[in-house]
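Re: export button greyed out
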Amino acid sequence: MTIRGSVLIGAADVTTAALFRAVDPATGAPLEPAFSAAGPREVEAACALAEAAFPHFAETTPETRARCLEAVADGIADLGAPLVERAMAETGLPRARLEGERARTVGQLRLFADLVRSGAWIRATIDPAQHKRQPLPRPDLRRRHVAIGPVAVFGASNFPLAFSVAGGDTAAALAAGCPVVVKGHPAHPGTGELVARAVRAAVATGGLPEGTFSYLPGPSTDLGSALVADPRIKGVGFTGSRAGGLALMRVAAGRPEPIPVYAEMSAVNPVVLLPGALRARSASLAAGFVQSLTLGAGQFCTNPGLLIGIAGSDLDAFAEAAAAAIRESVPHTMLTPDIRDRFAHAVAALAARPGVTVAARGAAAGPGGSPACLLRTEARHVLADPALADEMFGPAALLVAAADMAEVTRLLESLGGQLTATLHLDRADEHLAAGLVPLLARKAGRILANGWPTGVEVAPAMVHGGPFPATSDGRSSSVGTLAIERFLRPVCYQDLPDALLPPPLRPDNPWHLARRIDGVLDPQPGR
Amino acid sequence: MTIRGSVLIGAADVTTAALFRAVDPATGAPLEPAFSAAGPREVEAACALAEAAFPHFAETTPETRARCLEAVADGIADLGAPLVERAMAETGLPRARLEGERARTVGQLRLFADLVRSGAWIRATIDPAQHKRQPLPRPDLRRRHVAIGPVAVFGASNFPLAFSVAGGDTAAALAAGCPVVVKGHPAHPGTGELVARAVRAAVATGGLPEGTFSYLPGPSTDLGSALVADPRIKGVGFTGSRAGGLALMRVAAGRPEPIPVYAEMSAVNPVVLLPGALRARSASLAAGFVQSLTLGAGQFCTNPGLLIGIAGSDLDAFAEAAAAAIRESVPHTMLTPDIRDRFAHAVAALAARPGVTVAARGAAAGPGGSPACLLRTEARHVLADPALADEMFGPAALLVAAADMAEVTRLLESLGGQLTATLHLDRADEHLAAGLVPLLARKAGRILANGWPTGVEVAPAMVHGGPFPATSDGRSSSVGTLAIERFLRPVCYQDLPDALLPPPLRPDNPWHLARRIDGVLDPQPGR
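Workaround output, generated via the alternate export path:
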């Protein structure tokens, strides 16, 4: 596969007159080649093909879709070192991280292939007729879940593979039977195109309609708005900034037909250091914290950006150890010059607030990098000005000293929705933790104990989501098998002749699904 | 229980200076007593109590919530004939219909009690730790679904019991663990207050916090908007007009924290009469159709308002038989003078459109009633002006003659989202029907064969919902056990000590739930 700088509309490579280039974030130098930016014409063409593909693609068998997902996984793996090297050049992320992310992306596609095959997502439910029921007979009712329609997916800057062209949203949407139109992130267009070509090849090999997948790269926010506004798009997956997510939510809500937007936007992922844990292991907590904070230059939505402890010598010891580790930390190149500049601005603005001090800064960085930073304040300042707890996307955190547990609780209550919330505790802290867990469960999608929130396992029990403004829709997860439900809706069939029922609901159960019959799950359908 | 005309804020009866009265729709005469209309102060008080109740109510055991729902059911049944008679006076609906609706409402509450006890809605999912996994260990991950927060429920005019104060949305929200603030429909305030008192008594008997339930009657749309705008409300259930639903969607989307709105709004519920069925049984089809159309004066969201067949003598025979039945039909009192007037206006407007003729009208009605009406046109007119297929809320339908099956398909494709879509077919029609079922599944939440869409079974497989504009959110159902998912969100617990886990996720499984462990359902946990 070579990078040709094209827009991919179904099976066609399209070029446009509007060109843009990726930039090496370490040097600011533009990278070859130039890429065609998609515009309204390409949105129109991709959406028309997606709509045309939908009726067929939505009704393909689980096996057909599972094989397609596996072919995408194989195709990405087969891209080999050139994919990783292009991603390194475009994002400044190191090789090992990108190799790990590639493994995660491929594994995620295979997980969704297994999920599609299981048929669990169909949720086949049958309430057989009761012809003799009084006062009225009960009809035969059969429910399944089906694809919602073509889906727009927005790639994220910080995961050029796992949350981008063939990331979690694309895998979940394809698994559900939804054609996907990807709005490619302009910071990694070469990486995006390589992956998009792998998806397209899998669509072709599987004999699927070309409109099953299209790829629209481009730097303009108008492109994304036009895609979300297109009447043929029925759902949106987005990972990015709060401003970007809110803008797409407004577009979606303002359409003649509003559609769901699953936007994962921002979080500071509060971490509470309980007294016993601080007393027992402030040094190892500080080491773990700084490692999590600076991982990937802090450019994770689960970055631990807000630490909370009760003021005292144990918290001071933690702060000193963390400050020492921050000063030792090696600056990494950030994803884009724009992200680097916004991060520097956010840190400077926070440092200038009354009551906030800079506890430590990392070594000065090269032109593309940013030093890590630990800031410190007291809880009363955050309670007075909640903006102190806003996300700074990068390797910076605010350490907050509270007067007592009551103030810790008030501080947590004052926060908006979060992706994660973490408690560090010793056995002696359990009674304190027990009072906080229910509160944290109202604030976040994932609660951790004695760990760090970076690192999101791709698994059935994972929830990567949370109440607004962490996401646009806290009823959902963007990681793990639960994500398929974003792109499904229920349909009930009443008294249909057997020959007209879709396979999952037929009496002979040709797909051998576990089905819920009269409210009871039949988990072992005969094969 | 007596009707006192109060607003019910938790345990308190509140009166206000703004009074309104119900009206006997048969005569237009006001009914005693006067009712206090809730305003901003009552919204504030009810939402404050609901928020205060939420942490406790959300974590009550399944048994506690199931008993509360059963106590509500018992309380409604115990209201006896006075409830039915008040509802008759306020809605003009006949006794048998209201007794049936009461049975449905009580049964629905008991169904949700059973559902809560089953714990299936918790969806307990456990991925145990893999400490030795390479390259990184897997943490222990445990997911459950929890209540989203206080919910606002809007009662509907046409089901004063089953879709009102203690209707499906209230039952589902209470089952999920969400406190409920009901905005009572102003057309049946006495009925609403009686039921609200039964809910409040059940809350008190169950030892639940008073803010678990409040009841805000009032005629003003500002009241509903204020309730949806309140930051403590986290979700909305609504059944009513498209204009009303769209207005609430706008309020919810415009909040600093947008929230989900489940609005069930409008549908014409297309019915396709396939050629073989028309040839074999046009007379019985006509009888069944007119019975469904005129049931409850046509005031059902599933009313069959659009019939489609291929032009010819069989369709003419159907039309003649239907027209005869329409002319024989007895007019019923409509729910409110306003609904009657809007219905008359909608029928007159449709009859005045080019290409539309009135095939038959029922006998003239008394002051509160409206004659049924069958209108007729050709498919090309509907294709040219989609507004011909807009809902007329009442006993009127448009019969559309299509030139051929291709035109039937085009007509169906042109329709917006629907609650239901129906096919009448003979065995010889199955090949035609097979081509339509997938299209109908994209348009509607429920597909019927050889039946009529009025009559919505309360069952696990039911879907009462559908793509916009039938509802605001086609991923959901307002009837049946699926409705509980409207009011739930997932939370993941990572590496929590056993003592800090909520009961559904503890290793000892104290609630004896069927849990999915490492992707496999363990359906028979030891008791």
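Chain A has a mean pLDDT of 96. The button fix ships in the next patch.
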